Amino acid sequence: MARDERRPTWAIFLLLGVVLTVTLQLASGLLLALGWIWLLPFHIIDGLVAALFLAGEWSWLLGSGAGRRSAARIFLLSATTRRRVVRQWRHLGRDGTLLREGLDAAVAGVFLLLASVTVILGILLWRGAGDLLPWHRTLAAFLLLLWILHLAFSIIDHWPRRHRNGISP
After folding, report:
1. Which UniProt keywords are given for this protein, alphabetically ordered (predicted)?
2. pLDDT tens per residue, range 137-168
3. Is the pTM of this model over 0.70?
4. In contact, 71 and 65? CB cutoff 8 Å
5. In Å, how far from its chain's centre is CA 149?
6. Does residue 151 lie in a domain region?
7. Which of 48, 129, 130, 143 is 20 to 30 Å from the Cα of 94, by its Cα?
8. Is the four-CA dihedral 139, 142, 147, 153 of positive or negative sign?
């Protein structure tokens, strides 16, 4: 990967902010659903911070060349990524390519879209649209499943692999 293809340092911090705030949203939302109502102020504040990080991430994805290339990869606008996703899906990820370049890229794209919509619904809830709570909870449940899937794909990608005849895959 060439240097101009990499995320700039500030965009890495944006992504880290998205990951941390959305993860905290999932954890605090789950605890809220279990009755820990005293977490509501934290959940609201973290949701607003998550909205800022998500807005920054979308700005980077849409506003820079490297961001647009990254968006093309995670939203399957790239023919190469689409082919990798299909190949990995057929072989259940055992085709030797990194999942982050195929299936996990697609999961990351859906995750970003779903996280953005869920945070927007959360802000609308905070502003008084209480009838959106079932939608917010449903999207958050799907988001949690995607989060777990993304974590599993990352673990698989970084798990030590056996080498055949001394040649790495």
Report:
1. Membrane, Transmembrane, Transmembrane helix
2. 999 999 999 999 999 888 888 777 665 444 45
3. yes
4. no
5. 10
6. yes
7. 143
8. negative
